[in-house]
Amino acid sequence: MALPTWDHPEPLAIDSAPVPEYGAGSLADVLPTLAAGMSVPGMTAAIPELAPADRNCVFLIDGLGWEQLRAHPDEAPFMTSLLASSRGGTGRPITAGYPATTATSLASVGTGLPPGAHGLPGYTARNPATGELMNQLRWNPWTDPRAWQPHPTIFQLADAAGVHTAQVSSPTFQNTPLTKIALSGGTFHGRLSGEERMDLAAEQLAAGDRSLVYTYYAEVDGKGHRFGIDSDPWRGQLMYVDRLVQRLAEQLPPRSALYVTADHGMIDIPFDEQHRIDFDEDWELRAGVALLGGEGRARHVYAVPGAQADVLACWREVLGEQFWIASRDEAIAAGWFGPHVDERVYARLGDVIAAARDDVLIIASEREPKESAMVGNHGSMTPVEQLVPLLQVRS
């Protein structure tokens, strides 16, 4: 008697997901490496390709992935000229971390810890104390920031070690909880225009014999979400930020290193039912699900008690050819969130975790109307989302 055949290709194997390069070449490894080169106690040079400098500046461009930069040499001539300098002159990128999203990545940058340790594991995640979804970018609903992320930042540790430490960003970010738990330490300087930020970042670098300065620009990401990475508005932002990078590079004081990086890349997703699967319209995917967290390409799925196995089986059956679908414990064992997940972070992760491999989203048109309407998206472990530059200019 012939055995029945499987109607569909096997679901994607969990171990086929390209796990971020935690501990050797991820965003979480950048500041510890720079701080170790400035003799900050307890820091390890995790990215061995980076040579020490007395004055270090990190310029983070929100949403500018490695693949997008390489694909647009005409719009970004200065950064294109620096591609060979990436990752200490190897010409290679680093990885963001999973999920590849702003709140998670900024926390990884500032704390020097992977998501499983700092505890911001996505755009939205369940607060085990309340059972509610928490938006970790907007910090809504409110929860105590220091309880949510108790680890010190690298800026705080460097400041305590006598390093001149500063953040130069938009004034609107000065008092946000995300800034407090991820990027605080030393002095925050709010400046509205990009040119003002570049000029002040250079001044702050020169203000100490040892300096650690962070600056940030958001609108590459903003235009990508709204219009897509093939749009004229996005290209215009790339042209503008390329000039900002050159402006800062030309003002570096002696003994300085400038590192230009990003929190994630981005991918445009077509607006049709094949590429945008609507959770709010799909009874199979909703069955047994209490909360839907994360974002379209990196979902945390929280099951009704007792339904975890059924939800996992259903999501694997429906989506397993396009998404890596893992249980919480499988994702942890595979190292998606880093080599270790703290006990306080464990229940923030979904019972089921879905990471997109293909050009596809799980939207929620009723629950998340704004997010569901975005052209450009990110979050998963594909190269277009994960790989980010670490361009270098030294003086």
Describe the structure.
This protein is an alpha/beta fold. The protein is built from 18 helices and 18 strands. Helix 10 runs parallel beside helix 12 and helix 11 (219-227) packs antiparallel against helix 12 (232-249).
* Number of H/I helices: 18
Total beta strands: 18
Kindly provide the radius of gyration, computed on alpha-carbon positions and rounded to a whole number of angstroms.
21 Å
Q: pLDDT average, as an integer?
A: 96
Q: Give the uncertain stretches in residue-range form.
A: 1-6
Main attributes?
395 residues, 6-stranded mixed β-sheet, 18 helices, alpha/beta, disordered N terminus
Brief sketch in words of this structure:
The protein has 395 residues and is of the alpha/beta class.
SSE inventory with pairings:
Elements (H helix, E strand, L loop, with lengths): L29 H8 L17 E7 L4 H5 L6 H5 L4 H4 L4 E2 L6 H10 L3 H4 L5 E3 L6 E3 L9 H4 L5 H7 L3 E6 L7 H6 L4 E4 L3 H13 L4 E7 L1 H9 L4 H18 L6 E6 L5 E2 L7 E3 L4 H4 L2 E7 L2 E6 L4 H12 L3 E5 H6 L9 H4 L5 E5 L4 E3 L5 H4 L3 E2 L5 H4 E2 L2 E4 L1
Parallel strand pairs: 1-7, 1-8, 5-6, 5-7, 10-15
Antiparallel strand pairs: 2-17, 3-4, 8-18, 9-16, 11-12, 12-14, 13-14
Helix pairs in contact: 10-12, 11-12
